[in-house]
Design goal:
Blueprint (H helix, E strand, L loop, with lengths): L4 E7 L6 E7 L7 E11 L1 H8 L10 E2 L4 E8 L11 E4 L2 E3 L5 H4 L10 E2 L11 E5 L4 E2 L6 H4 L5 H11 L7 E5 L4 H12 L3 E6 L2 H9 L4 E4 L6 H7 L9 E4 L5 H9 L5 E4 L12 H6 L3 E4 L5 H12 L7 E5 L3 H9 L6 E5 L3
Parallel strand pairs: 11-12, 11-14, 12-13, 14-15, 15-16, 17-18
Antiparallel strand pairs: 1-2, 1-4, 3-5, 3-9, 3-18, 5-6, 6-10, 7-8
Helix pairs in contact: 4-5, 4-10, 7-8
The structure holds nicotinamide-8-iodo-adenine-dinucleotide and zinc ion (ZN).
Length: 349
Amino acid sequence: DIPSEQWAQVVEKTGGPVAYKRIPVQKPGPDEVLVNIKYSGVCHTDLHAMMGDWPLDTKLPLVGGHEGAGVVVARGELVKDIEIGDYAGIKWLNGSCLSCSYCQNGDEPLCHKALLSGYTVDGTFQEYAIAKAAHVARIPKECDLEAVAPILCAGITVYKGLKESNTRPGQTIAVVGAGGGLGSIALQYAKAMGLHTIAIDGGDEKRDLCLKLGASAFVDFTKTKDLVADVRAATGDGEGPHAALLVAAQEKPFQQATQYLRSKGVLVCIGLPAGAQLSAPVFDTVIRMITIKGSYVGNRADTAEALDFFRRGLITVPFKTIGLSQLQEVYTLMHEGKIAGRIVVDPTK
Ligand code: 8ID
Ligand code: ZN
């Protein structure tokens, strides 16, 4: 009883808006599964995709979305290791070739043939979505599909970024954009890993959320007179954090973050603001031995590990659920930086 038609949000032209309409339900190919999406998180990447912010074209028309949690309802003939009725998650990495040197080494996000959910293939802002069985996240049955949805991009990405930061328990990491979707979840993973966090974002709603989620300090970028000094002062010895996880969707912090890092600190860049450039003074970067790196989603093992933190109850996702029909309103609020935590959409409403 899979219907032939369904509700979806479709980007018909770059720049938007999204159109809420009926479209056909697709059939999975031999190595694919069809997932009945129960809930999908809305990531800032979905807004970048609609707006054409990046130097990589999307498919058009496009069904966005890449944080989809649901139930497998059909599978291709080659699929043997996931059953009809299993919980499954469709994440940003919809598929990869599995045989190139990147895939062989567990760097599947770097595969040149990677398929991207809600970008180069249709994603999770529809009732039924398709992904390669090899890449579908295996969601444990005891997980609540509504609360787990944001783990499928935000969770995996910040968990991987924290690993890339090379921090150890007891050290301090700054989370830039800490009140947003990725940031609020990053505070949780960092805490579970035994790190102190300095949350950086703007406004009282986000401050209250970050402190509630266990941040040791909050620095308001909209109010501070000297952000670099305030971040440094928030560490015990005034030397600054051992690392910074940069998940903001604006360019400014990419010019600033190395300045408040402690010597030998690591800047992990994750946010992808349109047309942004990184910059840092060469002299200071060299003599203080600063590392600057990028981090891009996660592989299948990172996915399973990030889900296991959630399963163990270590991660509280701050989310609010609304109907998929209201997606354009979510984008408006997101553009204005007004969403604390994550918005989750219900495709049946
Ligand atoms: O794999 C990846 N690298 C990856 C995966 C998923 C998402 C990258 N991303 C990218 C998205 O495309 C987006 O550019 O990470 C960025 C953050 O995604 P999000 O968490 O879904 O966005 P959000 O919920 O809008 O949160 C962004 C937060 O940044 C704050 C905002 O107030 C908001 O809370 N922020 C901004 I905009 N400018 C800031 C600044 N100067 C800032 N916080 C501190 N300082
Ligand atoms: Zn995302």
